[in-house]
Amino acid sequence: MTPPQRERRAPQAGTEQDPGRLYVITGGTDGSQRAPLDLVALIVARSEAPPTAPPEQTALLRLCRTPLSVAEISAYLGLPFSVVTVLVTELLAADLVESRAPVVRSALPERSLLEAVMHGLQKL
Questions:
Q1: Distance separating alpha carbons of residues 122 and 124, to the nearest angstrom
Q2: For the whole model, what pTM was predicted?
Q3: pLDDT tens-digit series, residues 26-58
């Protein structure tokens, strides 16, 4: 017996799946002028959204009052990463947000230090 199949529906206008909506959000740009952002780049707002800003940019600026990664912004807004990078690029050009590189650990602690901590914890 085969499991019942769900019928696939066409995306409705106004949903995140609707390509027409994504085209409107990005202003019809092809993304060739996107800033070089990766999923873990931190975005922080520098100022409030201007009254003429589209709703998606306004929402992005509200979210980024504290630093958020591009992946988090994408998840919170329910938009694909590529669309979020276009929005962030526009906000970077308007100097409304700042992009920060994620904190990278330069080196691991020495093995002797880790062993000393481990032995100390075992003695507790």
A1: 5
A2: 0.59
A3: 555 555 566 667 788 888 888 887 888 778 888
